[in-house]
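FORM 7B: Structural annotation worksheet

SECTION A. Query
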Amino acid sequence: KILDGTPSSADQSSFVLCFSGDTRPSDKLVHACRSHSPPQLNKQAWRQDRHRQQNNMPPPPPPRVSLLIHEATFLNDSHGQIDAVKKRHSTTIEALDVAQKINAEACILTHFSQRYQHISIKDICPSQNLYPFSWGIALDGVMLPLSKRALSGGLFGLSQCVDAL
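SECTION B. Predicted structure
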C-alpha cells in the first residue's frame, strides 16, 4: 500500500506478489516468502510501531503472499516428474506445494510445456480440495484483476471455466 508515494506498514490491504521464475521448487523462495521484509514505514506506521514497542506488544506478522505465480512446465505424471528434474522445471503439484508451504492466498500456474495441447484443472490436480487456497492456470490472453477483493472470492472463478475454453 502506498500513501503519498511512501510505502506504509504492512496491513490487511497489502497486496504481496511472488513470482518464481523458471526453476525447480526452491527452499530459498519458500524462506524468502515466509520472512519477507515489511515495507519501509511512513510516519503514522512508525508511531504505531513505536507504541507497540513501548507497550511490549509483538510486532504484526509480515503480510501473507497474496499471489504466487509459479511455473508448472510439466504435469505430475511419471514422465512429467522425470522431465521436470532433468530439465530443471517444476511439475504442477510441486508448484502448488510451494504455494501451500508459503501459505499463499492464491496461485497461478504458468509456463506449460508445448507438449500439452489442452490442460484442464483435473489434469493438474485430481481434487481442488487438496489445496486450501485459490488456484488456477494462466491462459494466453486472459487478463485477471489483481486485488485482494478479487482473490477473496476464489481465483476469479477460473477453476469453473477453464475446461470450457
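SECTION C. Observations
Helices lie at 27-34, 43-54, 78-86, 92-101, 121-124, 148-152, 158-161. The CA atoms of residues 41 and 59 lie 13 Å apart.

SECTION D. Sign-off
Analyst initials: ____
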